Amino acid sequence: MLSVSLQDSSFPSDQPQFVSVSRIEVFVIPALAVDSAGYRVCLRLSSDLGYGWSEHFVSECEPSLQLDRWSPLLRGFIGRFPFAALTSQLTGHLSQSMNPENRAYRLVTDAVQQLQNAAALIRAAVSADASHSEESVLQQRAVAYLSVD
Fold first, then answer.
1. Between residues 36 and 138, which one has the greater pLDDT?
2. CA dihedral defined by 63, 101, 112, 87, rounded to 10 degrees?
3. pLDDT, tens digit, for every residue of 61-74?
4. pLDDT for 9-19, tens place per residue?
5. C-beta of residue 25 within 8 angstroms of C-beta of residue 144
6. Are 148 and 23 in contact (CB under 8 A)?
7. Which of 6, 40, 42 is CA-nearest to residue 131?
8. In angstroms, rounded to a whole number, what is the distance separating the alpha carbons of residues 56 and 28?
9. Is 112 strand, coil or helix?
10. Cβ–Cβ under 8 Å, residues 21 and 46
11. Global pTM?
């Protein structure tokens, strides 16, 4: 399995040093492909720098996601953080390979990475209208939803 530490990445000097995360949402949506028996688990991280997205596929035969256990885990990522501290915290959680909540941490890690990459390229490339329409579609199709703010 490939393991990447967010701390190993180099970012341009104009990269924001802090991020304020105001909300984390998780949408569990049935997979669309005919041969895919499972769910798409989409995470949206709302911050002062825009949105970070991540998505993982969960097979129907995998154990339950237990979203009720994710809420307190995700709440720890709400607030204002130096990027370095946030990525260090996530890397620490992921290094505990037996941690049953690794899927939640991986989703947040991917969303933070996507947010960092987007912030390095352009500040607000995605308009609020596009994000709200995406959220609306996800909420309509979701079989489970979690919002932490």
1. 138
2. -150
3. 776 677 888 899 89
4. 444 446 678 88
5. no
6. yes
7. 42
8. 10
9. helix
10. yes
11. 0.72
